[in-house]
Write a structure and sequence with these properties.
Elements: H1 69-77, H2 81-114, H3 121-166, H4 169-173, H5 177-218, H6 220-227, H7 230-267, H8 269-274, H9 278-331, H10 336-378, E1 399-406, E2 415-422, E3 427-432, H11 438-444, E4 453-458, E5 461-462, H12 468-473, E6 475-478, H13 489-493, H14 502-511, H15 515-519, H16 538-550, E7 556-560, H17 568-581, E8 586-590, E9 602-607, E10 610-615, H18 617-623, H19 625-630
Parallel strand pairs: 3-8, 3-9, 6-7, 7-8
Antiparallel strand pairs: 1-2, 1-4, 4-5, 9-10
């Protein structure tokens, strides 16, 4: 997509199956991290890697390659052995009964109808029993096979989400919403559809082999004629496989791009309407949809070419078999019952052949889906916890930034040799020009990213030596962009402490000066807010976010311009409460408003990632020209 978001998305070139790469063509999102530390808003379809060569957010294709995807999926199925065995048992039972039925019919025709050697009722009873057994086998196969496919789908979806939640800041910056939504919904549905077909496909394979064995026993000559079309079928299947997989992959990539366009338009609906750019978003959607349409048409065209061929070729063999078989029956070389049974087995081969054609098409789509899902599951964070990491001791620790250097892109450093120390229980305010690294510090403290040089210490421990759970549990983080879930106000405030009582929730809301407006909502604390809290004002969202941080009773409080959208009267009330709340806590304030500085014991001035000066408001006003300019 062009830089300004207009026009069509770039075309994702799928891998060539002959190379067995199994990876998406241009599914490498760039590392477009802005200076303020917030993830970049990637445009759907802009899947080219950044100039810095940023790594993919998903694993390399080697972990989900052509020779592994099927084995991995089979191993995943084997986590539910009882369902696998029952589904296979039902399949084998139904297949065995289906294979025996023509032999029973042959015996009835030759010995009961034509020769009158046996009564017809024993054969009829056997056919009734066979029908009942076939029903039981098919029922078990469909029910247990369906359960298996749903269980595996649920397990894969859970693993995919778990993998996403473990990614660190650098990896999360590379995610494309449309791609993730597509892989967690559409691709997993495709995998579930494939798995639901597997018992039937296995049954068809067994039926195919069993029918050939019995056909060879009945008439070797006719069997050879029936198998004469085999090489043609094999050639068509291989030919279609090399073409359908890239077409399927590309179509799924384009579907993900469409999902990304829709997600961006829905999430930013107020911006779209505010700038009157509805037509532009429609054009973007039309552009992405045109690529999707072209990819789908390409896949459909290939399916229309190969599926009829796979079904027509066996019909040619069937004509030859029936002609020769009829002549042999007239000549007396085979019995009428044998000819009838052979014809029945020949008809039964049509089902496996059709299943083969379905497998060739659906299987290639499912293969692409499995690989795409496992790419996300296999993704690993760059930032990991040490095996010997220790928990952070309780209490209000000090915070030290020791000569730290950091940049979201290595060639573009944001912090350059910054050294700061926040004493235990002290409140330090950070001020500086835009892009000076203030918000970046708030993301380094809970270790969303690792510094490239120096060390961040909390309570005397390097954050890389601490367990992530204990470190992040000790920090109450309120970002400038207040994200809220589409849930009740109660659930949003208690998010970091799910077991909180209503009394504790109300206490945190009062501390954030949010109780009054929450009580005026239609259902009070049980009111469900809109997507990302859009039904609340900016100031209301910030107050709910502040209450969410306070309810966890953090030892360290990080406020990234947490009252920027709040009017002066309410801000003064919040500040009065915060003075009590911050007592005894180590607090880091990222300030853009002069009123916030009144809460700080000390103020640090940053510029271009370096410390310019630090001191009290009076000291800095007297000696720091940049501080006076910022005010």
């Amino acid at each position: 997509m062009t830089a300004n978001g207009r026009g069509r998305p770039e075309r994702n070139e799928p891998p060539r199956d002959s190379a067995a790469s199994g990876q998406p063509g241009n599914d490498k999102p760039g590392n477009d991290k802005p200076a303020n530390g917030q993830p970049a808003n990637h445009q759907p379809g802009n899947d080219k890697p950044a100039a810095d060569g940023g790594k993919q957010a998903v694993a390399s294709p080697g972990t989900s390659s052509q020779d592994r995807w099927l084995r991995r999926l089979a191993a995943h199925c084997w986590r539910y052995p009882s369902l696998v065995l029952l589904a296979l048992g039902g399949t084998l039972l139904a297949t065995a009964v289906t294979a025996v039925i023509p032999l029973i019919q042959r015996n009835i025709i030759d010995n009961s109808i034509l020769a009158h050697k046996e009564p017809i009722w024993p054969g009829a009873v056997l056919l009734i029993i066979a029908a009942l057994l076939n029903f039981a086998g098919v029922y078990v196969r469909r029910y247990r096979g369906g359960r298996l496919s749903l269980d595996v789908q649920h397990s894969l979806r859970t693993e995919l989400f778990g993998s996403l939640s473990r990614l660190d800041g650098a990896r999360q910056d590379q995610l494309h919403t449309g791609q993730i939504v597509s892989r967690s919904i559409s691709d997993l549905n495709m995998v579930q559809g494939l798995l639901s077909m597997v018992p039937l496909l296995l049954g068809n394979v067994v039926l195919f082999v069993a029918s050939l064995v019995i056909m060879a026993f009945l008439s070797p000559l006719l069997t050879v004629i029936a198998l004469a079309v085999g090489p043609a079928l094999w050639f068509i299947a291989l030919r279609s496989r090399t073409r359908l997989f890239p077409a399927s992959w590309d179509a799924q990539q384009q579907a993900a791009n469409v999902a990304g366009v829709v997600d961006g338009a829905v999430t930013g609906v107020r911006v779209v309407k505010g700038f009157g750019q509805e037509d532009q978003e429609i054009e973007r959607l039309e552009g992405a949809s045109q690529w999707l349409y072209a990819s789908r048409v390409r896949a459909v065209r290939l399916m229309a070419r190969y599926n009829p061929a796979l079904q027509a070729v066996p019909a040619l063999g069937q004509v030859g078999v029936l002609a020769l078989g009829g002549w042999l029956a007239i000549q007396g070389s085979i019995t009428i019952g044998t000819f009838f049974a052979f014809s029945a087995y020949l008809a039964q081969l049509v089902g496996p052949v059709r299943a083969l054609s379905a497998l060739v098409t659906i299987g290639q789509e499912a293969r692409a889906s499995v690989i795409r899902v496992y790419e996300v599951i296999d993704s690993r964070p760059v930032l990991t916890e040490k095996p010997d990491a220790v928990p952070l001791p309780p209490g209000a620790p000090d915070v030290e930034l020791d000569d730290i250097s950091f940049g979201y892109v290595p060639s573009e450093p944001v912090l350059r040799g910054l050294t700061l120390h926040v004493r235990q229980g002290e409140t330090l305010a950070l001020v500086g020009t835009s892009g000076s690294g203030k918000s970046t510090i708030s993301l380094l403290l809970p270790r969303f990213y690792d510094v490239r040089g120096g060390a961040v210490r909390v309570g005397g421990y390097d954050v890389r030596d601490l367990t992530l759970d204990s470190l992040r549990a000790s920090i109450g983080l309120v970002l400038e962009e207040s994200f809220l879930f589409s849930d009740s106000v109660r659930a949003n405030i208690a998010y970091g402490r799910p077991d909180a009582t209503l009394e504790q929730i109300v206490t945190a809301a009062r501390a954030a000066e949010a109780d009054e407006f929450i009580a005026s909502l239609p259902q009070g604390y049980d009111t469900v807010i809109g997507e990302q809290g859009l039904t609340l004002s900016g100031g209301q969202r910030q107050r709910v976010s502040l209450a969410r941080a306070l309810i966890t009773d953090p030892a360290i409080l990080v406020l990234d311009d947490a009252t920027s959208a709040i009017d002066a009267r309410v801000e003064a009330q919040i500040h009065a409460t915060l003075r009590k709340v911050m007592a005894g806590r180590t607090t880091l304030l990222i300030a853009h408003r002069r009123s916030t500085l009144q809460l700080a014991d000390r103020i640090a001035v940053l510029d271009e990632g370096r410390l310019v000066d630090e001191g009290t408001h009076e000291e800095l006003t007297e000696r720091c020209a940049l501080y006076r300019l910022l005010l």
